[in-house]
Amino acid sequence: MRFIHIADVHLGMQPDAGFPWSEERGEAIWESFRRIIRLAGREKTDFLLIAGDLFQCQPLLRELKEVNDLFASIPETIVVLIAGNHDYVKRESFYRGFDWADNVVMLLSPEPECVEVPEKKTAVYGCSYDKKEILENRLDGVRPEGKMKYHLLLAHGGDARHMPWNPGRMAQAGFDYIACGHIHKPGILIPDKMAYAGALEPTDETQLGPHGYIRGTVDEHGTRIQFVPFARYEYEDLVLNVTEDLTQYALETKLKQELALREDGKIRKIIRLKLVGHRAAELEFSPKRLLDCGRVISVEDETRPAYDLEQMKKTYGASLISAYIEAFETKTDAQSQKALDYGLEALLAARRNG
Ligand SMILES: [Mn+2]
C-alpha cells in the first residue's frame, strides 16, 4: 500500500504580506496543491493523507467544492483529511454535512474515529479540531483495532497548546504510520513511523530549506517513508562578506549576482540577507535598496566600520577620541564593540562639525 502524506497547505494564505511577490505565493500554494493531486493520480497512489490545516482559515463553500472536484479527479486514490487548528470545525463550518466525492473521507469528529477501506486492507484513524486550541492529547488512548491489515493515524499538533504529545509513546500504540501536521518544518519524529510532512509550501521566512511531502509504503516488510522536496518556493539565508572598499552599488551588484545564481527555473528562492565584515568607516548601507534587488525579505546588517584604531590614536594624539579607544582596548565582547563603533562615529562627527 502506497501513500502520500501532506499537511499545512494553508490554502487561501498569501505569505510574505507586503512584498511584491506575495500574491504569487498565494497562487503557488494552490498550484502546488493541484500538482500533488495530479501526482497522486498519475502514480495511482492508494492514499492521499492530509493531516490538518488544508485551509488557512474557515473554508468557503466554493473552496470546498473546488478541492472536492480536484479530489474527484483521482478516483483511484482515497483521500483522508482532518481539520487542524486553522480550519477547525466551527459550529457553522461548511465542513459539516459537506457532500464529499466517493473517494474522500473527512474524519470530522473531535473524538478519534476510524474509517476502514477494505479494498486497500487499511484503516485510517484521526480526529478534527473543533476549536483553535486543544490542550490535551485526544489521541492518547487510540489503538489500532478491527480486521484491517494496515493502520494509519492522522495527527495534528504536538506543541503545548495543540494536543501536546510524546512521539515515543504515540509510536508505541501500534500504528504502521502516524502522519503529523501543524509544525511547518518537515521532520521525521520516529524513523519510518511518525513524521511531520511540513507545510507543502513554506509560509514564513523562519521555515528555511526545502518543503514538500512524505511518500510512504506499507507492506509485509513494514513501513518505509521518505521526504520529497516539492515546493515552488524556498527560504534561504545568504551571508555576504563586506570589505572596506565595497560601495553600495558594488554590494547591490554582488547581491544581484548571488540571486541570479539561485534561479534554477524550478525553485524560487526568498532570501534572508545578512551582511558581515567591515565596511568603509563613513558608509551606511541602504537596506531598502538591497530589498529592492530581488526576492529579499530581510536585511540584517552586522558589518562594522573599518576603523584603523592604532592610526587614529596617532592622528588624534592626546584627545577624547584616543582616550575612548583606549577605554575599550581590553573589551572584546559584541556589546562593547558596538559601543566603540557608535561612540567613535559620534566623536568623529562632533569633531568634523565643531
Ligand atoms: Mn496547525
UniProtKB/TrEMBL annotation:
Limits of the Calcineurin-like phosphoesterase domain: 1-186
UniProt cross-references to CDD domains, sorted A to Z: MPP_Mre11_N (cd00840)
Origin superkingdom: Bacteria
UniProt GO molecular function: exonuclease activity
Keyword Hydrolase: yes
A matching Pfam family: Metallophos
Record's keyword terms, sorted: Exonuclease, Hydrolase, Nuclease
PANTHER family, per the entry: COMPONENT OF ATP-DEPENDENT DSDNA EXONUCLEASE
Protein name: DNA repair exonuclease
